[in-house]
Write a structure and sequence with these properties.
The longest helix has 16 residues. The chain has a 5-stranded mixed sheet. It has a single domain, classed as 3-Layer(aba) Sandwich (Glutaredoxin). It is α/β, with parallel strands linked by helices. The protein is globular, with a radius of gyration of 12 Å. It has 4 helices and 5 strands; from the N terminus they run βαβαβαββα. Helices cover 37% and strands 29% of the residues.
């Protein structure tokens, strides 16, 4: 399974159960482009355990606004629909894994 593409329309359904990592990004954002392969790797490594995907803030301003995303990339972890962790700026794979594992524990 590859990454999920989150939108304003599917966001609440896609994040309501289990652990979900959402990368809030924009196509023009340099650090977002650096983060993209890390997100892809994590999606493969956590397949079946964590839903991982991206939300384009330019195409989905409602959801980005709802969660106060003002700088990108912003990564938010959800558990059963509730925001449990938030990171801004580029994060290494190791840092993201630590945050994911903490939420899974």
């Amino acid at each position: 399974m590859s990454e999920v593409t989150f939108t304003d329309a599917n966001f609440s359904d896609e994040t309501k159960e289990g652990v979900v990592l959402v990368d809030f990004f924009a196509t023009w954002c340099g650090p977002c482009k650096m983060l993209a392969p890390v997100i892809e790797e994590l999606a493969g490594e956590y397949e079946g355990k964590v839903k991982i995907g991206k939300l384009d803030v330019d195409e989905n301003p409602e959801t980005a606004g709802k969660f106060g995303v003002q700088s990108i990339p912003t990564i938010i972890l959800f558990k059963d629909g509730e925001e449990v962790d938030k990171m801004m700026g580029f994060q290494s794979k190791e840092v993201l894994k630590e945050h994911i594992d903490k939420v899974l524990a």
